Amino acid sequence: MIGSLMIGNRESKFLALHKGSESFSKTYEGINTAAEILRIEFFFLEIGEWEASGQYQDEVYLKIGGTTLDLTGFDKAYIEGNREEYFEGFKEGISWNRRAVSESMENFGFGSNTDQLHQVSVTVPKQYHTFPRVPSRLNSE
Fold first, then answer.
1. Exposed e or buried b for every residue in 30-51, given b needs 16+ CB within 10 A?
2. CA neighbor of 92 nearest in space, from 59, 139, 127, 135
3. Three-class DSSP category at 36
4. 109 vs 130: CA distance, rounded Å
5. Which of 39, 72, 118, 123 is the most interior residue, by most CB within 10 Å?
6. What is the model's pTM?
7. Residue 137: CB partners within 8 Å, gap ≥ 6?
8. Tell me, what DSSP letter sits at residue 103?
9. DSSP state of 73
10. Which class for 25: exposed (0-12), middle (13-18), buried (19 or more C-beta within 10 A)?
11. Phi, psi at residue 108, to the nearest 5°?
């Protein structure tokens, strides 16, 4: 299922409401191999409440080359009045951080569920992107 929302004056499409073993992938080509670092940024749209446990526990992993990054749980990521709260991680030379860019009360998606928009930034050092293609996979399990 695909949904859409407005970011500023632009409409943005998104994959929506995936449960189970769904996965998505994107391969980036034509990367300048002379660059010292590669920065990947994207928005992650949390639709409905984050399920931290149970049969349909929500998890998000980002795989870059052979390195899998666990972006951790997104529940209660926005603390009222403090959008500078962020989460970060580091694995095998690749660092990442994410922060909520909307309050958890907004409704971007379907029904009356509470939704939230997060910004994710990943910094990849040269040794991981010197080949012409950087396979990246975002898994939702």
1. eeeeeeeebebeeebbbbbebe
2. 127
3. coil
4. 38
5. 118
6. 0.69
7. 23, 24, 25, 26, 61, 62, 63
8. -
9. -
10. exposed
11. -90, -25
Helices in the chain by DSSP H: which ranges? none
Token representation of residue 44: 């992650």
Measured in residues, the chain has a length of 141
The pLDDT tens digits of the residues spanning 20-78 come to 555 666 666 666 777 788 888 888 777 776 666 666 667 778 888 788 888 876 655 44
Q: Is 83 helix (H, G, I), strand (E, B) or coil?
A: coil
Residue 126 φ then ψ, to 5°: -55, -40
Q: Are 74 and 118 in contact (CB under 8 A)?
A: yes
128: amino acid identity, one letter: Y
- Closest C-alpha among 68, 19, 72, 74 to residue 49: 74
Cα 49 from chain centroid?
A: 16
Distance between CA atoms of residues 132 and 38, nearest Å: 12
